[in-house]
Amino acid sequence: MATFPPSVQSRVVTDEDVKRTYAADAGPEPRDPARDVASDYTVVRARDVADVVAVLEHAQATGTPVVPQGARTSRVGGARATDGCIVLNVEALDAIETIDPVEGIAVVGPGVVNAALKAAAAEAGLFYGPDPASTATCTIGGNVATNAGGLCCLKYGVTADWVKALDVVLPGGEVMRTGHRTIKGVTGLDLTGLFVGSEGTLGVTTRVVTRLVPAPDPALTALATFGSLDEAVRAVVALRLDRHRPSLLEMMDRASLDAVRGFGDYGFPEESEAVLLVQSDRPGHTAEDVARYGELMTAAGAVEVAVAEDRQEADLLLQGRRVLSTAVEALGARIAEDVCVPVGRLGEYVRGAAEAARRFDVRIPVSGHAGDGNLHPSIVYPYGDAGARERAWAAFDELMQLGLSLGGTVAGEHGIGSIKRRWFAAEVGPREVERQRAIKAVFDPSGIMNPEVVFGPAGRVAGAAGPAT
Ligand SMILES: Cc1cc2nc3c(=O)[nH]c(=O)nc-3n(C[C@H](O)[C@H](O)[C@H](O)COP(=O)(O)OP(=O)(O)OC[C@H]3O[C@@H](n4cnc5c(N)ncnc54)[C@H](O)[C@@H]3O)c2cc1C
């Protein structure tokens, strides 16, 4: 176990059971079962910035890898312990320092939960846009590190569109400030943008300045069922072209509807191939918008359209979508995927996933943020079945390849983490990997920041022949 200065020693978790809970995240089991459990790692729960500084001084001096950690909801193995590392959890840095309606900003610690920032903004009549489905648990620091998206990106963009400035502790303990709190500011390179989405590979974020905007209206919902995927995709395209873009546009395919039906009765007809959920939150125009969205979906071929007339009905329509994650988890172990393809090619992707499910004998319900072309297939297999696990990972590779072949990307919003390194390299190519490694080295010359994610440890080539996990 690492020996820290006395100020930090009391933050080290000593209970082995508690330690283990900080070693895992919400990503899938690694491909290689031998790598399931990390050894010889230390967990530090920082209480303040001084703790973070002390840990990064120590880590740099001793060459110890550091895994920054928020709420551990990473879907890609980005926040899990690795052999010999320090897991540096910053959830306790959860102060909401400022909500400033005049400047339109919030200043928060990295451990502030996404939903808590939304609630604090709402109290001041303001709105913070990014809304991952994990909003109730994930932290703003984690959202910044992964450039998180969510259900409302279609209208409000991703985390990068909302972050104005950061405090980051670099390896060695220097506190660096990026960006501007002012409404405008264009001095120099956009280092805030560089840190957003860097998955803890450059430093540890200890303060975030976000943009806030005037609050929209409470959303109303329309739900449509479709007899064919092509009609559902046609509706998605029509909705994207509408002058008043929906604030949410989600899709569930037949396998997702089967999973939800197995879980409870949410009123989805057996014969549906796809369901779309659409919302408007446009101040003063929600009812008018959802009625028009309903007409657009009917024109595209929807079999049935239900339009909520009030908030309660709107919430009821969303319930089937809300239970989907739990319904899929009840089916077995899962690899949650996150490809993003051009919107017009959504149907090809969903059909390809269904074909892969048949061939590899696994279940692959596909759902997601159709309005962004961002789908989340879940590759599901029985717990403890080694053969099925292997087939599931083979299906995963095939879905990565399929996404790329359709002109998409292997990571829409969850990041690369440790599970997609090979596919990151496949998408961007070896020269780009080297360029990005060189940029990392400017901030992290010893390569100690989250070295198992994105690029992989220096010296290892993260190409097609690189390590599988
Ligand atoms: C049920 C469920 C639904 C989800 N839905 C969505 C969704 O709709 N959209 C979406 O984008 N994601 C979604 N996710 C994924 C996940 O919630 C996001 O990636 C989230 O941003 C991670 O936040 P976290 O606090 O849990 O971070 P962690 O999981 O703890 O860490 C994630 C990454 O950020 C780094 N990190 C964390 N904190 C810091 C910090 N302070 N400084 C530097 N690096 C840091 C870690 O090293 C790691 O690489 C979902 C996950 C689950 C389990």
TrEMBL record:
The keyword Flavoprotein applies. InterPro entries: FAD-bd_oxidored_4_C, FAD-bd_PCMH, FAD-bd_PCMH-like_sf, FAD-bd_PCMH_sub2, FAD-linked_Oxase-like_C, FAD-linked_OxidoTrans_Type4, Oxid_FAD_bind_N, Vanillyl_alc_oxidase_C-sub2. PROSITE patterns: FAD_PCMH (PS51387). Residues 36-215 form the FAD-binding PCMH-type domain. Its cofactor is FAD. It comes from the Bacteria. Pfam families: FAD-oxidase_C, FAD_binding_4. Keywords: FAD, Flavoprotein, Oxidoreductase. This is FAD-binding protein. It comes from Intrasporangium calvum. The lineage of its organism: Bacteria, Bacillati, Actinomycetota, Actinomycetes, Micrococcales.
